[in-house]
UniProtKB/TrEMBL annotation:
The keyword NADP does not apply. SUPFAM superfamilies: Metalloproteases ('zincins'), catalytic domain. Keywords: Hydrolase, Metal-binding, Metalloprotease, Protease, Signal, Zinc. The keyword Transcription regulation does not apply. Residues 67-110 form the FTP domain. It comes from Tumebacillus lacus. InterPro entries: FTP_domain (IPR011096), Peptidase_M36 (IPR001842), Peptidase_M4/M1_CTD_sf (IPR027268), Zinc_Metalloprotease_M4 (IPR050728). Residues 1-24 form the signal peptide. This is M36 family metallopeptidase.
C-alpha cells in the first residue's frame, strides 16, 4: 500500500505486565503461565468497550466484526475487522493480545475513526469492476475466476466505495494482482502485485555450494554438473513422505510440470543438472524449516502441506502467492530452488500471510515482510554451516549470477541503516533496516529465542502494521514468553535502528 493511502490510525500500546509461557526447548528460563479463566473474545470485547474512548472506537463496537481467535501456549490473539454498513473497510483491523489470565497486554489498531463515506452512487457492477481491473493489470489468461468483493477503502480520511478484485494469471510472468476499483466512477484507486518476490534465482546443498565449500568463485555454468558442485551434495533424510513415491508429504507438496519426481524405493539421488534435484532440495529445506518452527513451540504456524512450484517460471525471480497459498521458484541465472536462503525467504512470506492474512499492506509492513524472509534465510544458513565469512548475508549461491560482492549475496543484514533517514521507499532496501534488528536479536539471544519472540509477535500485528507496531509487538512477546527478561536489550537493538519500542 502506498503511503498516501495509509491514513488509518496505527496504535500499539503495552498495557500490563504479562505472565511468560513455559517452553520445553532450550532458552532463557521461563515461568508457567496462569490458566485462562475467561473466554478470550469475551475478555477482548470487554476491554475494548471499557477503553473505547482511548482507541476512538464506538462504545458498542458495532462496526468491529470478530474475525478469529488464535490460541498459543503464551497468549491469545483476538482479531477484529472494521466495517461500515456491514461491509469491510479493507485491511483496517484491530488485534487484542491477552495473557493466559485474560488480561489485555497489547492492542494494535488500524481503526479509522469518525469517517464519512463518499456520496457517489454505486454505478459499477462486479462484472464491470473485474473488466476494469483486468484492463489495468493486463492479465489475459486467468488461472481461475476472479474474486470480487464490495467494501470500502480509506482515502484522504474518507470511506471510498470500492470493489476489491483479485486476479491470478495462469502465466506466472503476468502476475497476481489485487486491484481496487471505485464503485462509483470505475477509476482504479490502486493496484498491487500480491506475489512476494525475491530478486534471485536460486540440490541437496547444505545450505548452498558457496557456503558449504567456502568457494566464492563457483559459477552456474548453465546448470551443468561439474566436480566442484557435485562434491557439495550431501545425503539427508527426507521426512514425512506420504508413501506415494512422489515428493509429497506432511509439510510440502512438490509441483513441477516438466519433471514429476518419483521413486518406488524412496531414494532421490540426483545431481544438480537434473530438475529432480531442485525438487528434492526444495522439499528438504521447506520440511526442515517447518519442523524447526514446531520444535521451538509452534504447531499452528503454516502447519500444512504447502505447494511448491519448482522451476515454475523462467524469470530470475521467485514468489509466494497469497491467493493460491503456493510458492513458485524461477530458473533465471542460478535456479532459485538450489539455494536454501531463497527457499526459506519465500517461506517467510507464507508464514506471515498465515499468521496475519493480508500482511504487508503498508509500506513498512512490506519492508518487514522482506526483512523477516531475509532473517529466516540468514539464520537458517548460519545454523547449517556456521562460517563468519558468510555472516550475515543470504543467498550466496543464487547471487553469483548478479552480485560482485565478496561473498556474493542477495542482501546483507548488517548495513547499519537507520529509520527514517535511510528510508528509500523500496521494500527490499527498506527491509534491511528491519532485518538487521531481527538479526541482532539472534546474535544477542540465540537463534531459537529470537525466532520464538519474533514469531510470537506476528499475531499482534495487522495488515497495515508499522515498524513501531512491530517493535512494540516484539517487546510484548518477550514479556509474554520470558517475563520481559530481554526488554532492555530489545530496546537498545531497535533504538539503534531508529525504532521505538514504546
Amino acid at each position: 500500500m502506498k503511503k498516501q493511502f495509509a491514513v488509518a490510525l496505527a496504535t500499539a500500546v503495552i498495557l500490563t505486565s504479562a505472565v511468560p509461557a513455559a517452553f520445553a526447548q532450550s532458552g532463557a528460563p521461563v515461568a508457567t503461565p496462569a490458566v485462562a479463566t475467561v473466554d478470550a473474545k469475551t475478555a477482548a470485547d470487554a476491554f475494548l468497550k471499557q477503553n473505547a474512548g482511548k482507541y476512538e472506537l464506538k462504545a458498542d463496537l458495532s462496526d468491529l466484526q470478530y474475525v478469529t481467535t488464535v490460541r498459543t501456549d503464551a497468549a491469545d490473539y483476538v482479531r477484529y475487522q472494521q466495517t461500515y454498513g456491514g461491509k469491510e473497510v479493507f485491511y483496517n483491523q484491530v488485534t487484542v493480545t491477552l495473557d493466559k489470565a485474560g488480561n489485555a497486554v497489547l492492542v494494535t489498531s488500524d481503526y479509522a475513526p469518525n469517517l464519512t463515506a463518499e456520496t457517489t452512487k454505486k454505478n459499477i457492477t462486479e462484472n464491470e469492476a473485474e473488466g476494469l481491473a483486468l484492463g489495468h493489470t493486463k492479465i489475459k489468461n486467468l488461472a481461475s475466476a476472479a474474486s470480487r468483493k464490495f467494501g470500502y477503502i480509506v482515502q484522504d480520511k474518507k470511506l471510498v466505495p470500492a470493489y476489491k478484485v483479485t486476479t491470478v494469471s495462469a502465466i506466472a510472468e503476468e502476475g497476481e494482482f489485487e486491484t481496487y476499483v471505485h464503485a462509483g466512477t470505475g477509476a482504479i484507486i490502486k493496484s498491487r502485485d500480491l506475489r512476494q518476490k525475491v530478486n534471485g534465482t536460486g540440490k541437496v546443498f547444505l545450505p548452498n555450494p558457496v557456503v558449504s565449500s567456502g568457494n566464492v568463485n563457483l559459477t552456474d555454468n548453465n546448470n551443468a554438473d561439474y566436480d566442484l558442485l557435485t562434491n557439495e551434495l550431501k545425503t539427508v533424510t527426507l521426512q514425512g513422505l506420504d508413501g506415494s513415491g512422489y515428493l509429497t508429504g506432511q509439510y510440502v507438496s512438490i509441483s513441477n510440470k516438466k519433471s514429476k519426481t518419483f521413486s518406488s524405493s524412496f531414494v532421490y539421488n540426483y545431481t544438480r543438472s537434473s530438475a529432480h534435484f531442485e525438487n528434492t532440495n526444495v522439499y528438504y529445506h521447506l520440511d526442515s524449516l517447518q519442523r524447526y518452527i514446531q520444535s521451538i513451540g509452534f504447531n499452528n504456524i503454516n502447519n500444512r502441506s504447502i505447494v511448491a512450484n519448482v522451476n515454475g517460471t523462467t524469470a530470475d525471480n521467485s514468489y509466494y502467492s497469497p491467493s493460491t497459498k503456493a510458492l513458485t521458484f524461477g530458473t533465471g541465472g542460478v535456479d532459485d530452488a538450489e539455494d536454501a536462503g531463497v527457499i526459506v525467504h519465500e517461506y517467510g512470506h507464507s508464514i506471515q500471510d498465515n499468521q496475519v492474512p493480508g500482511f504487508g499492506n503498508s509500506a513498512e509492513g512490506g519492508a518487514m515482510g522482506e526483512a523477516f524472509g531475509d532473517f529466516l534465510g540468514a539464520t537458517y544458513e548460519s545454523f547449517l554451516k556456521p562460517d563468519p565469512k558468510f555472516d550475515p548475508v543470504v543467498a550466496e549461491w543464487d547471487a553469483v549470477s548478479y552480485s560482485s560482492d565478496n561473498p556474493p549475496n542477495l542482501r546483507r543484514l548488517d548495513e547499519g541503516k537507520v529509520y527514517p533517514q535511510d528510508w528509500q521507499g523500496e521494500v527490499h532496501a527498506d527491509g534491511e533496516i528491519w532485518s538487521q534488528g531481527e538479526y541482532e536479536m539472534a546474535k544477542a539471544f540465540g537463534r531459537d529465542i529470537a525466532t520464538r519472540i519474533i514469531l510470537q509477535s506476528h499475531w499482534s500485528l495487522t495488515p497495515n502494521a508499522t515498524f513501531n507496531d512491530g517493535a512494540r509487538a516484539i517487546k510484548a512477546a518477550d514479556q509474554l514468553l520470558y517475563g520481559g527478561s530481554h526488554a532492555a536489550q530489545i530496546d537498545a537493538i531497535w533504538a539503534a535502528r531508529g525504532i521505538s519500542t514504546n
